[in-house]
Queue: 2 jobs
Job 1
Amino acid sequence: MRAMIFTGAGSALREAELPGPKPGPGQARLNVRACAVCRTDLHIVDGELPDPKLPLVLGHQIVAFVSEVGTDASRFSVGERVGVPWLGWTDGTCRFCRSGRENLCDRARFTGYQIDGGFAEETVADERYCLRIPENYSDLQVAPLLCAGLIGYRSLVMTGDAERLGLYGFGASAHIVAQVARWQSRRVFAFTRAGDEEGQRFARSLGAEWAGSSTERPPEELDAAIIFAPVGELVPAALAAVAKGGVVVCAGIHMSEIPSFSYDLLWGERVLRSVANLTRKDGEEFMDLAPKVPVRTEIREFRLEEANEALQHLRTGELRGAAVLKIG
C-alpha cells in the first residue's frame, strides 16, 4: 500500500510502499477514502509534540470502509463506512476512564501519533474507538468533523450557555463551531490574523455578526471565547475581552508560551481552561448533531502525495476551512 511516512522532526513526509496492515484482536482493517489534515499533524512534524512513534503515518480524521475484521471484533461489518478520530485507545481502568474522562487517560494512545494513521491507503484501528458517521456526508466533507468538529464541539460545550461567543483563529474548527453556535442562537464574534479580510468575510458568511483582527477588542464584551490559534499571546487578549464570569477555552494541543498578565484580567470569576483530546461520547453526540444543524464543511482537496503541500498551506494560514487528502 502507498503511505506518506514521517521519520522525524524537521523532515518532510516521504511516499513509501508498505505491506498492508493485518487486524489484530478487536481491530478492523480499513480502506482509507479520505483523511483531513489537522494542525496537530503540523505540531508533530515540527517537533512540538514529543516522542511520536517513528516511523509514523500521520492522520487522525480518517474516513474509511471496513475491509476485514480481526478476532473478537463485532461492532462493524465488512463494507461499513467508519470514522477514526484522534483517540485511538485507552486502558479503561484508570480513575479518569472510570469517571467518564477517558480523554485524560495517562496511558491513552492517539491515532497518527502513537498509532499509524490515515495518510495511507490502508490502516487498522481498534473498533471500539471508531465512530459511525452520518450517511448524508461525502467522504471528503465528513472528514473534518472527526477532529476539527469534535474538538470544536467539546470546546463549545465548555463555554456553557454563553450567548456572546468569541472565536480566535477562524480555521477548520472555528468554521464548524460557528455554524453550531448560530444554530444554538448564540452570537458569534470572529477573530483572525491582522489583515485577513478574506477570513473575516468567510466568518461573516457563516453568521458571525462581527469579524476583526485578534488584536482588536470586540464591539461589546463576550460571555466566552474559544482560542483555536496556537498563539499564547491571545490568552490575555481573550481574557480582556470577556465579561466578569466569562470563560476562555484553549482548544489546541500545543500553544506558544503564554505571557504573564495582571490578575485583574482573571479577577471577577473569569475562568481559563483547556480542552484535552476527546471522548467517544463527544464523538457520538457530535455525529448525531452535525446533520441536524446541518454543518457544512469548507474543504480544499489534496492528493495523498500532496500531503506536504497541504501541511505547508496550513502552516502559512492559506487555507479557508480544512485541507482533506483524497485517498483510494
Job 2
Amino acid sequence: MTERTLTTRELNRALLARQFLLERSSLPMVATIERIGGLQTQYAPSGYIGLWSRMRNFRRDALTEALHQRRVIQGTLLRSTIHMVSASDYWLYLAAIRQARQDWWRRVTRHQISELDMEAAVGALREQLAKGPRRADELRGILAERGMPPFAFGGVAQWLEMVRVPPSGTWEQRRADLYGIAEAWIRPAAHDEPAGLEHLIRRYLGAFGPASVREIADWGGIPHTKLVPVLERMSLRHFRDEKGKELIDLPRAPLPDADSPAPVRFLPTWDATLLVHARRTQILPEKYRPLVFNSRTPHSVPTFLIDGAVAGTWRVEHDRVELQPFEPIPKSVRPEVDEEAQRLAAFFR
C-alpha cells in the first residue's frame, strides 16, 4: 500500500492540534501537561505561559499548587534540560533516558573524572539530601570540598535522581535551585528501559507527531538506535513527508485538515514546538529562526503565532504586551492579535 504523503501545512496543523494551539484544552491540567509532552522550564514562568496559551481558564496558582502537591514534578529530564511533567511520567521518562545520559557522561569525561570519583560524589550528595532539600550552591560546595571539579555536579545529576523542590522554580520564586531526592519527594516506580522508551515514543507522537525516528530521539536526547527495537513491536501508522522521508504516528492521533484555521497564540521562551525536532512543521519559518535562537539570545525569546507560524516576538512592558513583528501584521488579523495580547497582559497582573 502506498503511504500517504503529508504536506508541510498538514504537519503544521497536526502539531498545533496536539499542542492545544488550535483549540485550547478542556482537560485537567496534569492531563494537559502529559498530552503536550511536558513543559520545558529552564525559565520557570515559561511553563505557566505555555499552559495559559493551551488551556481554558488556566490559573497561575493552579500550577504552583500542583508542584507543591507533587502532582507535577520539575526535574532534569529530556535533553538534560529542566522539565515539568506529571508524577507518573517522571519515572517513565527517567527509565527511557537514564542509561543514555550516563553513557554520554562517561564518554565526555573519561579523561577527567573516574568512575570511583563519581560514585563517591553521588554518595556524598545522597547523604546530604537524605537530611532534606539543599540549595545548589551548597551541594556544589560539598563537591568542591572533596576536590571535585565544578562540572561534577552535572554528572551527579545523571546518577542521582533529583527534583527541583518548590517554591523554587515557580512563578513566585523563579530560580530553580532547591534540590531534593526524587524517591523521597514522590513514590518511586520501577520501570525498565524498554517500557520507558515506548512511553517516550507515545508521548512524543501524541504531542508532536507524525515524526521521524530521529526527531523522537532528538527530543528525548537519546541515540535513535535505542528506539528501533521498541518501534518494531509497536502498532503505528506510516506516512511520508513532501521530501519522501518516512514518518510514523499513533493509530488514532488527530490529523486536521490543512485548511483548519489557526488562531493567534503567544508562546513563552524555549517552547518545545519551536525546537529543531519540530522543524518539519515550519511553525518557526527558517528565515526567522536566527531571530529567535542565536548567540545574543541564548535563552531564546517569547514569540507569537499568526496562522500557525511565528510572526514576531513579544515582551511585557509597564503592564502591556509589546509586540515586535518580523513583518507588518495584516490588518485582517490585527484585532485578534491585540485582543490576545491584552488577555496575556492581564495574566501577568
